[in-house]
Write a structure and sequence with these properties.
By secondary structure, this protein is of the alpha/beta class. It has 15 helices and 12 strands. The strands form 2 sheets. It has a 6-stranded parallel beta sheet with strand order 2-1-3-4-5-11, sandwiched between helices. β9, α13 (268-272) and β10 (276-279) form a beta-alpha-beta unit. The longest helix has 16 residues, at 282-297.
């Protein structure tokens, strides 16, 4: 089946059929529907290579995760983010390539990727201050969107309101009546960790207690050691990921100590383990990032966006009814 044959069956021009597959918004809905129905009936698919030559676009997008491959498949922020992003790309007939980068020269990696002409647009995660990837892609003039902000913000981004999320956690522990609290962050070099801690401290403003600040680099064994070291000093814990919060919960359970605990992400694990958490609407972040990078590729005007957070109260609800709050042995 050829484009000409599809056009004859539909009673339209070859140019109209071509627009249906390349610029559908320029075709009347009823005409577009008729062409698509005939194409599906006869199994017609536009030639991908020919289409890319005409449009100078491949329909392929890239996300490189700056950590081990297991992070992509575990119940984590990345897997939930991908569900939102892939949902958008699939709805537009686009493809997303997922790669991992753990060692080597990141500049050479991206230069090779860009020179291949395979990728239309790029998604960057784990943004750091003065991020070399950002500077390189800006220099090369290719479309990209970042998940998160840094000290420059010279790029389009979609970010969670990490400051407010941290503040919501701090306010909740203060409301419960905690007097000394433990903050367990992930990677201290990531800007969003700093924002969550800053918000957390502000949320605790006036509580008169002490804040212990630690980082576990998202390693569950590190979290366990930290909790064991501080368990006799604190009566409240805030972890900047649900995976770390679950590791902290396991230590508390093993020690027979019931203590207010808050995570961050609202992944399925936190629901199963009944962990209070900050929901950062990860699905929406993924969908918005995908939409914005696609719009950039199409040459549309795009603005950065910050997504709201909200506290999901689960395991700490019982402490709200206690006049003392804090730990129960």
């Amino acid at each position: 089946m050829t484009v000409k044959e599809i056009a004859n069956l539909c009673g339209v021009s070859v140019a109209t059929v071509s627009r249906v597959f390349n610029e559908p918004e320029k075709v009347k809905p009823e005409t577009r529907q008729r062409v698509l129905e005939i194409a599906e009936k006869y199994g017609y698919m536009p030639h991908a290579i020919a289409k890319s030559l005409r449009t100078k676009r491949t329909g392929v997008y890239s996300l490189t995760v700056m950590s081990g491959v297991e992070r992509v498949f575990e119940d984590s922020y990345v897997s939930k983010f991908l569900r939102g992003a892939v949902r958008y790309f699939s709805s537009k007939g686009l493809k997303l390539i997922i790669d991992v980068f753990t060692k080597g020269d990141i500049t050479s990696y991206y230069k090779t990727l860009v020179s291949s002409k395979l990728i239309d647009g790029y998604i960057l995660m784990d943004i750091k201050d003065d991020d070399t990837r950002v500077e390189l892609l800006n220099e090369l003039g290719v479309p990209f969107v970042c998940v998160g902000r840094n000290n420059k913000n010279n790029f389009i981004y979609v970010d969670t309101d990490n400051y407010t999320g941290g503040r919501q956690a701090g306010e909740h522990l203060k409301e419960i009546g905690c007097t000394n609290v433990l903050f367990i962050g992930g990677d201290p070099s990531l800007p969003f960790e700093k924002e969550r801690f800053r918000g957390f401290v502000d949320g605790l403003s006036g509580f008169g207690g002490k804040v212990y600040k630690t980082f576990a680099n998202y390693d569950e064994k590190n979290v366990q050691k930290i909790v064991e070291n501080y368990l006799n000093e604190v009566d409240g814990i805030f972890c900047t990921s649900d995976v770390m919060a679950y590791a902290a919960l396991r230590v508390c359970e093993q020690k027979g100590i019931d203590i207010p605990l808050i995570g961050f992400d609202n992944i399925l694990l936190s629901e199963i383990a009944n962990i209070t958490t900050v929901d950062q609407n990860i699905h929406l972040v993924g969908e918005m990032v995908a939409r914005k990078v696609h719009q950039l590729v199409l040459g549309e005007q795009v603005e950065s966006e910050v997504i709201n957070t909200h506290l999901v109260i689960r395991g700490t609800k019982k402490f709200l009814n206690s006049s003392k709050g804090g730990r129960v042995v």
